[in-house]
């Protein structure tokens, strides 16, 4: 059969790829979106569970938004979602703030107001000073990086910061206390699902700068918090509306195996041997997953090394569903810490459906639990919930579901790709730089809210703009 032709082929029907395709079609260009899986959404995956109250959607991947994630908010409104952060009937729901949060820091269990970023009342004056001192140093560095969100490798001290891991930074100051160190380690594991020794300190600062501040990135309460709200009907509602708007140009079950470039365009070949031709291509995956494709001519060395040095975090995202939220009113459902396998938990109850708690197992704990059976995963997670909230009722959920992202053949982990020491200054310039007729999207290619849904949206738009500017 002759190759199907269009102006731009987009590889990947995650949020970033579909946003790139949407912008191109709005500019009058023809597109085809090729998706390897039998669904859209990429790392925004959902599962529908039949409950007595009807079907309920659980976000097993990306799920949250905040009021300053403007690209995502605008997209949702254009797709017909009602985004009103002050209206309880809106299509977004605030993370529960009523009740106490459980913190495990420095080996101790502490209760504090969920509305507070940290259990300040539990700290002695020396600890408070140490925490303030660490935050002051980090925010001062992040302020520098805000001027280099497009080119972190050119920031002052970039090479020195990129030589360090986050763990190296913690060991660089003899005045850091064990509590200071524990707080930052918990934050790294909670946001990136890796261990602090695995992440470049420069990458850490840059990522925080693209979110505005470290407080915004780590917080899950308040309108500006990165995890302040979740979608009433799940992120898949956004993805489905976007896919419906694009229509039949989205082709599922079309894993791309090869992209060949020539003088006038590109030829894209799928695993089944189908060929598609276009003037340009946009690869909307993480750098790591983009390396699955065979490129002719081969990718430049720095792009190859970038893909090899951008591993994704190791995440197991779980939901435990109960008949009622028996942890109310004492607990909000929020817990943070690294004493148990759970790095953090959060209440995700959406009336009238039964109560549910979301829990993350990440990093080394995810590695240890990843090879276990479904029953063993449930047993370990629910036992950790019992330890965290000190209530035996958590041991026997009505329903339990989880997603081990490291075992996903098309994602290789989550939530995002992470740069180890040395990678960003050596190979970061290849992150968004086109390779002849190939452009790059995906949340890792963003310059605002890197790694988040909002970043995926803006990176898709940016790749479409690149293709349009280059000539279509």
Low-confidence stretches: none
For this structure, the CATH topology of the largest domain is FAD/NAD(P)-binding domain
Q: What proportion of the residues form beta strands (DSSP E)?
A: 15-25%
Based on secondary structure, the structural category is alpha/beta
CATH superfamily of the largest domain: FAD/NAD(P)-binding domain
Mean pLDDT: 93
Tell me about this structure.
The protein is an alpha/beta fold. It folds into three domains: 4-42 and 236-311 and 419-470, FAD/NAD(P)-binding domain; 47-99 and 225-233 and 314-404, Polyamine Oxidase, Chain A, domain 2; 120-218, Guanine Nucleotide Dissociation Inhibitor, domain 1, CATH 1.10.405.10. It contains 15 helices and 20 strands. Strands 1, 2, 10, 11, 12, 13, 14 and 20 form an eight-stranded mixed sheet that branches. A hairpin with a 4-residue loop joins β12 and β13 (275-283). α2 crosses α15 and α3 packs across α7 (201-211).
SSE diagram, text form:
Blueprint: E1 4-11, H1 15-26, E2 31-34, E3 46-51, E4 54-59, E5 64-65, H2 70-78, E6 92-94, E7 100-105, E8 108-113, H3 125-145, H4 158-163, H5 166-171, H6 178-192, H7 201-211, H8 214-218, E9 229-231, H9 235-246, E10 250-251, E11 256-262, E12 265-270, E13 275-283, H10 287-290, E14 294-296, H11 301-308, E15 315-322, E16 331-337, E17 342-347, E18 355-362, H12 363-370, H13 374-389, E19 399-404, H14 423-427, E20 438-440, H15 453-470
Parallel strand pairs: 1-2, 1-13, 2-10, 7-16, 11-14, 13-20
Antiparallel strand pairs: 3-4, 5-9, 6-9, 7-8, 11-12, 12-13, 15-18, 15-19, 16-17, 17-18
Helix pairs in contact: 1-9, 1-15, 2-15, 3-7
């Amino acid at each position: 059969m002759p190759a199907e032709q269009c102006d731009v082929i987009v590889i990947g029907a995650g949020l970033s790829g579909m946003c790139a395709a949407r912008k191109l079609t709005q500019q009058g260009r023809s597109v085809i979106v090729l998706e390897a899986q039998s669904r859209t959404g990429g790392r925004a995956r959902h599962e529908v569970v039949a409950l007595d109250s009807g079907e309920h959607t659980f976000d097993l991947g990306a799920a949250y938004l905040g009021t300053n994630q403007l690209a995502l908010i605008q997209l949702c409104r254009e797709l017909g979602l009602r985004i009103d952060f002050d209206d309880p009937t809106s299509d977004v729901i605030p993370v529960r703030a009523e009740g106490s949060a459980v913190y495990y820091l420095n080996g101790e269990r502490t209760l504090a107001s969920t509305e507070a970023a940290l259990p300040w009342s539990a700290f002695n004056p020396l600890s408070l000073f140490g925490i303030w001192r660490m935050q002051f140093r980090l925010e001062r560095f992040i302020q520098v990086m805000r001027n280099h969100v497009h080119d972190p490798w050119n920031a002052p001290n970039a090479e020195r910061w990129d030589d360090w891991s986050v763990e190296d930074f913690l060991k660089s100051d003899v005045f850091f206390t064990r509590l200071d160190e524990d707080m930052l380690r918990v934050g790294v594991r909670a946001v990136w699902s890796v261990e602090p020794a695995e992440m470049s300190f420069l990458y850490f600062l840059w990522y925080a700068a693209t979110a505005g501040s470290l407080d915004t990135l780590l917080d899950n309460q308040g309108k500006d918090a990165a995890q302040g709200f979740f979608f009433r009907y799940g992120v898949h509602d956004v993805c489905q509306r976007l896919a419906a708007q694009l229509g039949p140009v989205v082709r599922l079950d079309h894993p791309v195996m090869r992209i060949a470039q020539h003088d006038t365009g590109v030829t894209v070949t799928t695993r089944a041997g189908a060929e598609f031709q276009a003037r340009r291509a946009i690869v909307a995956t993480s750098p790591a997953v983009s390396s699955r494709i065979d490129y002719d001519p081969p990718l430049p060395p720095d792009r190859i090394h970038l893909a090899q040095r951008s591993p994704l975090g190791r995440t197991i995202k779980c939901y435990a569903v109960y008949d009622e939220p028996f942890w109310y009113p004492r607990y909000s459902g929020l817990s943070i810490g690294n004493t148990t396998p759970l790095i953090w938990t959060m209440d995700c109850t959406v009336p009238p459906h039964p109560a549910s708690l979301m829990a993350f197992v990440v990093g080394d704990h995810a590695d240890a639990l990843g090879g276990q059976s479904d029953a063993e995963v449930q047993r370990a997670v629910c036992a950790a919930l019992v330890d965290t909230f000190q209530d035996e009722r958590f041991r026997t959920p009505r329903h339990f579901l989880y997603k081990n992202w490291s075992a996903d053949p098309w994602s290789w982990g989550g939530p995002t790709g992470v740069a180890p020491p040395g990678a960003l200054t050596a190979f970061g310039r290849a992150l968004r730089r086109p390779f002849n007729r190939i452009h790059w999207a995906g949340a890792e290619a963003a310059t605002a809210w890197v790694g988040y849904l909002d970043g995926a949206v803006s990176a898709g738009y940016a790749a479409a703009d690149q293709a349009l500017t280059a000539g279509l």
